[in-house]
Amino acid sequence: KNKLKIFKNKKNYGIGGSHKIVFNYLIENEFDYCLIIPSSYKGSPNEILKLFCTYQHNNPEVDVFFGKRIFKSHLDLNAKIVQRMSRNVAEPLKHLLSDYKFSDIGSRFILIRVEVLKDLAFKSLSDGSEFNLQLNVLLTEVPDLKIREIELKKWAFSNTDSAKILRYSGKMIKTMTHYGVNKYLFQRSGWRLFNDFPDNIEREFEII
């Protein structure tokens, strides 16, 4: 009874801004875990929940679980070229710059211990679609954080096309380059890895 809460923003705060609202709510109300499922996922949320909860129950010491997605594409010649660029440029870049060697650094299937969010500088990440990638990378900066990747079942695949691959690769290259320059050239850390200014925006919402 009354377990489902829907957050209605007063204005469009973007994907990242909406995540920040929920994260703050979970912290303030002392939740234990936060499960993130992308809106593009067409399967059953209950199946995802059951899978992650099973792993969490069997591995209580783990702080963050990332779901490794299974990609499935029917690509034409141009799309295959774009996909190869992604594999040969964007993927090596993320592995070179990130301390944690992700199999799927862009995953938006995440189960995270809320305690981790309390000291994480998530408020100053992008309000846009880059938020998820930035969040994943920022989590790798937390000392002694226990992270585990789990392979999602076949029903959790993502359909994609050349345009999506191109946009994804472009955002990844931009985000990881910004991250690499700030971390290794300017020796920045925390929220300053992705932003030049702290986020002091008050985001208004209601729970319905």
According to DSSP, the number of beta strands is 8
User: What is the 3D shape?
Assistant: globular
Seen as an oligomer or otherwise, the chain set is single chain
Spell out the helices and strands N to C: EHEHEEHEHHEEHE
User: What does the largest sheet look like?
Assistant: 4 strands, mixed
Q: Output the number of helix runs.
A: 6
Q: What is the C-alpha radius of gyration, as a whole number of Å?
A: 17 Å
What's the end-to-end separation, in Å? 14 Å
Q: What do the pLDDT scores average to?
A: 81
How many domains comprise the coordinates?
A: 1
Low-confidence stretches: none
Look at the structure and give the CATH class: Alpha Beta
Q: Classify the fold: give the CATH topology.
A: Spore Coat Polysaccharide Biosynthesis Protein SpsA, Chain A
Structural class: alpha/beta
Secondary-structure blueprint of this entry?
Elements: E1 7-9, H1 14-28, E2 33-36, H2 45-58, E3 64-68, E4 71-72, H3 77-97, E5 110-113, H4 114-118, H5 131-139, E6 147-151, E7 158-159, H6 162-185, E8 205-207
Parallel strand pairs: 3-6, 4-7
Antiparallel strand pairs: 1-8, 2-5, 3-5
Helix pairs in contact: 3-6
